[in-house]
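Q: Got a minute? One more chain.
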Amino acid sequence: MKKLLAMLLCLTLSLSLMLPLALAEEKPAYSVEGFETVDAEGNRITTGRDATSKVAMAVASKYEVSQVGAEILKKGGNAVDAAVAMGFAQAVAEPFTNGPGGGGLAVIHMADGKNIFVDFREIAPAAATLDLYLDAEGKNNGKTKEGGLASGIPGDVAGLLYMLENYGSGKLTRQEVMAPAIRIATEGLYVSTYAANSITDAYEKATTFPEMQKVYWDENGLPLEAGVVLKNPDFAKTLNLIAEKGNDGFYKGEVAQAIVDSLAKYEGVMTLEDLANYKVTVKEPVQGTYRGYTLLSSPPPSSGGTILIEILNILENFDVSALKVNSPEYIHLIVETFKLSYADRAQYMADEAFAKVPISGLTNKEYAKKRSEMIDLTKAQQPAFDDPTLFEHTDTTHYSVADAEGNCVAVTKTINYYFGSGVMVDGYGFMMNNEMDDFSTSAESVNKIEPGKKPLSSMSPTVVLKEDGKPFLVLGTPGGARIFASIAQIISRVIDHKMPLHDAISVPKIWNNGPANNFQYETPLKGYEEYAITEETVAKLTEMGHDKIGTAASGAVQAIEFLDDGTLYGTADPRQDGKAVGVE
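A: Always. Here it is, folded:
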């Protein structure tokens, strides 16, 4: 099987580099002509990802989705209208990371100063008790990862429609906002190198859950190759039902029945009642400051915003700007800060409906100062708490949008692993999540599986405001438990080192995702080799006591910066397929 997958991957890569998009037989819904994401040697292309505008900006990990956001903004929609349209379009364009079968989080900053956090995270079904996920020895039996038991009740559709109905401009109908996504599902889009690799990597999953093959395999029974046009008429049918009936088109009726039946085929316990009872949660974002800037991010059930603020609060006690980015001294300070913060994450963070979370304490400046005094700048240490088990996978998606009035929306969505649980809703063209794997199967964990509970998340859609309260940054990323650590690095690089936003995103990032020494770093993108973590750097860190040192993958930050002259600057992470689109 591994040899077959390797052969398929090589074939996909070869064809993706040989086949110009212009030669594809069919034209997709949105043109990406002239936009290349990898060069002839397979390196990610870091240029051509940004845009500027005096009016509005949309940026997603798929160029087509950024175009959708700009299209809605040009029609008179506000940033929320555009964000909702982008959310449905992203589900079609990047179906292996997000969609109606999943959920997400959003942070909204309205031009009138109102700040909103919209929680449409998945919820454990009423019958999803811990014993279903344990083997005879009391260990995880694997059913949190794949199959019908792996899925939480999806919140994606409810969340997007809630945002549209409550914070949209009111100028565009639900049908108008959803039309671009329906068009992409009907007319198709090019399969990129990144997408083709993801489809090929899911070969084994598609053999276990053959409903996937209808959409993601070709007529020869092989995974779709880069350069072909992918259409999904079943998904278009689902989107049309939602456009026509709203929430009832998904959480009731034929789609809901198909969800229940498709999951039940693979041991699922989700019911029609579970779906009909799903509710979006709305509250204020968690708030903090960093060197005069205000941070707005995600409160529980995400650990992201709270721990992001704790990280930056600790760093505020040091002169970060005096340290060269990715030097041994810089890395040591950053990862020691991470270890302290991840220890708190493991100890305290969970769904607030099931546990008391000391948010005000974790985001308190004096608490951060006390934590900062535990850092020894000469040697690595391990905080008192045990290593956390990291429950989240990295396969999520993010997009950002801002309009002329100053409305800003940061949205992070997921189905957890690539292609989620592997269960495609038969006849309706979308994948179900495996968010039950974001829970712990330890009965002692604050994040253990319980019916009606939301699993812990690290998703950190974030808006940063200037001292005068006007927007400065809108950003977020996928990356599982690396998310908030990545966002903290971007914010620090821009504020402390005055680094241009695109460079701040492209420079290799670093992590230590727990209290124990486990330093991870990215290999550099082409053009950013000067920031590489060298053998000399690794040797110095080893002398300081860091170990388990190795490379790791990053997320894909999609961000917007409000420049001092009023220009909106948007840029997409070159690690995926994004490109910012401005409105003129």
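A: Residues 1-24, 385-394 have pLDDT under 50 and may be disordered.
Q: Perfect, thanks.
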